[in-house]
Design a protein that fits this description.
Distance between the termini: 15 Å
Strand order of the largest sheet: 1-3-6-4-5
Oligomer: single chain
Order of helices and strands: EEEEEHEHHHEEEHHHHEEHE
Number of helices: 9
Helix content: 25-40%
Bound molecules: alpha-D-galactopyranose
Length: 332
């Protein structure tokens, strides 16, 4: 093995939020932001240098040894792959990423999946993409203590360019839903990173498991919205998307209580500026919104939203007019 490079994309979720860990429906899209791992073989060790953090971690190729900070992700991936039969082949790797960390665009799944694929290739080891996705779900939990669902690693691995991924997180059946031509997917990062992100997420999951009525009402209504969004995309009824995304956002704000005033403002501004549809995306407690807009005017629309957002809050929002891309498993 002479080394190589692996790219894993980030994702935006179109709809189906906080539904994955109770076996519901999700509809994410892999986007052209992502994480690249460039690697060379190395004897007995996994050494990973991060261009974002500027430091390196080093552990045994079987996952032995401790790695603090972001290195916990590296250790979790190496240990779990080792437990699932990957031979202890080392790599010397450099990680670079265009995904803003903590923006709700799944920077951590892009990291774990790109690392995992590099480690698998170095050891000529292959896992079915859904098995690998489940393993990376476990890696997130092990590294960060977040009891997340399957959506992010599944999307990062299984997505298809020009499509959203409709995944039933209960049966794990999936199919690709074609995205309409001429519509851009815009992610706008609120720049807010809440300390509650991890504990709040775990609390919501526990509340769903305990059967709290308002939380369950969100999950049930959200699953129905995913079905309707898929129908609208497939039947060309794009006018339905605005009210469905609006209802999804309101449900996350009022019934699920994971939105923030900044996300609420960005969503309102998106509709006021003529977006076809907009809602918060990802786990919430900060992070990003997703908006759908006419491709021709998407840059101007997003720039206008971010400018008003800055005027009203003093915060620097950042926007990305995204291309949909293939998941990492589709690459050679
Ligand atoms: C985070 C988690 C996902 C999912 C979303 C909310 O992104 O990693 O598993 O639960 O939040 O939909």
């Amino acid at each position: 093995m002479s080394g190589g490079a692996v790219f894993a994309p980030a994702r935006v979720n179109l709809i189906g939020e906080h539904t994955d860990y109770s076996g519901g429906l999700v509809l994410p899209v892999a986007i052209d932001l992502g994480t690249t791992v460039t690697w060379q073989p190395l004897d007995g060790l996994v050494r990973v240098r991060s261009l974002a953090f500027g430091d390196a971690v080093e552990i045994g190729a079987d996952g032995s040894g401790a790695a603090p900070g972001w290195g916990r992700y590296v250790a979790a991936v190496v240990v779990l792959l080792h437990e699932h039969g990957r031979l202890s082949v080392g790599i010397d790797a450099v990680v670079s990423s265009t995904v803003p960390i903590g923006s709700g665009l799944s920077s951590s799944a892009a990291l774990t999946v790109s690392l995992a694929l590099a480690l698998c290739r170095a050891a000529s080891f292959e896992l079915d993409p859904l098995d690998l996705a489940r393993l990376m779900q476990a890696a997130e939990r092990r590294a960060a203590g977040v009891p997340c669902g399957l959506m992010d690693p599944a999307c990062v691995l299984l997505a298809r360019r020009g499509h959203a991924l409709l995944l039933d997180c209960g049966s794990e059946e999936y199919r690709h839903v074609r995205l309409p031509a001429g519509i851009a997917i815009v992610a706008i990062d609120s720049g807010v990173r809440h300390a509650l992100e991890h504990s709040g997420y775990a609390e919501r999951r526990a509340e769903v498991e305990r059967g709290e009525p308002r939380r369950l009402r969100h999950v049930a209504s959200e699953n129905e919205r995913v079905r309707r969004v898929v129908s609208a995309l497939e039947d060309g009824g794009l006018d339905a998307l605005g009210p469905l995304f609006r209802a999804g956002h309101d449900s996350l704000r009022d019934d699920f209580e994971v939105s923030t005033p900044e996300l609420d403002l960005l969503v309102d501004l998106a509709y006021e500026h003529g977006a076809l549809a907009a809602r918060m995306t990802g786990g919430g407690f900060g992070g990003s919104i997703v908006a759908l807009a006419d491709a021709a005017g998407a840059d101007a629309l997003a720039a206008a939203i971010v400018a008003v957002y800055h005027e009203r809050t003093g915060r620097e929002g950042r926007f990305f007019v995204c291309e949909s891309v293939d998941g990492a498993a589709a690459r050679p």
